[in-house]
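User: Please fill in residues for this 379-position structure.
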């Protein structure tokens, strides 16, 4: 048997057809396709000019038919089952509403970021045109206007990021501010896009911290958020004086991160916490847990990095490692970006490392150590 809604829909189609006629311009294709037998079943003597009494009689017949079908419809659900179904439907709607709210929030953030990106790009164009002028930025600790300055020479691992306009200021400002305010938390948040790999960036900050004397150990521990949530912090005691890098940090539980912050304090194990992850997940995390915002002063925003920025990064990385390469090498590396998520630094650096290893193996076999990358090394 058809469901009540289906029966009502068919009956109403027949009623409308009889009231307004088969040739009416407003009739739907479905109504025009009804057979004469279906029409006669609803109203054998139907005609466009039927009297008001006939119309009333027809409506009564349709309603009576619907009422009869309603009574004949088998009741398969007991009252408790119906209530459970209603409760489940309500819960589902709640989840849908939460999902819609999350979509709305992300859309608002994306629009805000796009506007900020355009503003920053315009400022960078102006800055490039007036590169000899002193650049002013806001100190993230004091809120005062200060000169941006330059990246310290000891921060060699971070130099390649200063080639990327959209990231350069964040890197330089964070390092100079940490050096200026050594008693403030040195923790870093690296914001990426969905699909980004940013652990390599965290490692470069950790190595630079050690070279600058900002940490006392060159030890680096890396963990994913879900692993950290289950981990006992006694395992981090060996990290004393080093750096902890947390991947997909938006998934860290609030209680666990509070434990980590206490454990990393100068009076305890004195290590720096570097959070890496997708920008929306981390934004949500800090919005919901604003009690710990003050422990993470420095934000490195690399979610805007495009292919052009990746190539600047590649040139800087090759130079940082002491190698040289001609344009065809970088053209081949650019081709490899097509097989990666846009801006995935970890995968791209891993690809360059693979090329460098092939260069070393080829030169070792030839008794050379020139570190000159050849096109064959990119195969």
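Assistant: Residues filled in for all 379 positions:
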């Amino acid at each position: 048997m058809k469901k009540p809604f289906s029966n009502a829909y068919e009956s109403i189609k027949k009623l409308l057809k009889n009231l307004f006629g088969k040739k009416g311009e407003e009739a739907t294709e479905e109504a025009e396709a009804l057979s004469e037998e279906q029409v006669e079943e609803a109203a054998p003597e139907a005609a466009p000019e039927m009297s008001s009494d006939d119309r009333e009689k027809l409506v009564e017949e349709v309603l009576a038919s619907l009422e009869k079908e309603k009574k004949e419809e088998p009741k398969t659900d007991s009252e408790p089952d119906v209530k459970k179904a209603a409760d489940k439907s309500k819960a589902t709607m709640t989840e849908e509403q939460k999902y819609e709210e999350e979509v709305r929030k992300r859309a608002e953030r994306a629009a805000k970021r796009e506007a900020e990106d355009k503003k920053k790009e315009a400022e960078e164009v102006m800055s490039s045109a007036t590169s000899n002028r002193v650049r002013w930025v806001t100190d993230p600790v004091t809120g005062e206007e200060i000169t941006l300055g330059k990246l310290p020479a000891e921060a060699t691992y971070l130099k390649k990021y200063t080639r990327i306009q959209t990231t350069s200021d964040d890197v330089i400002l964070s390092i100079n501010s940490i050096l200026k305010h050594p008693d403030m938390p040195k923790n870093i948040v690296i914001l990426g896009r969905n699909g980004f790999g940013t652990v390599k960036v965290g490692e470069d900050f950790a190595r630079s911290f050690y070279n600058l004397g900002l940490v006392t150990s060159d030890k680096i521990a890396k963990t994913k958020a879900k692993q950290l949530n289950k981990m006992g912090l006694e395992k981090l005691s060996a990290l004393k004086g080093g750096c902890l890098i947390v991947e997909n940090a938006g998934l860290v539980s609030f209680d666990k991160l509070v434990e980590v912050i206490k454990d990393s304090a100068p009076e305890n194990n004195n290590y720096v916490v570097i959070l890496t992850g997708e920008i929306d997940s981390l934004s949500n995390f800090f919005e919901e847990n604003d009690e710990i915002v003050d422990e993470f002063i420095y934000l490195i925003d690399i979610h805007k990095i495009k292919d052009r920025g990746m190539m600047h990064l590649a040139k800087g990385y090759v130079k940082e490692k002491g190698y040289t390469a001609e344009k065809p090498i970088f053209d081949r590396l650019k081709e490899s970006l097509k097989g990666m998520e846009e801006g995935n630094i970890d995968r791209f650096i891993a690809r360059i490392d693979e090329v460098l290893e092939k260069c070393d193996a080829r030169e070792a076999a030839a008794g050379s150590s020139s570190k000159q990358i050849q096109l064959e090394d990119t195969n």
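For context: The mean pLDDT is 78.
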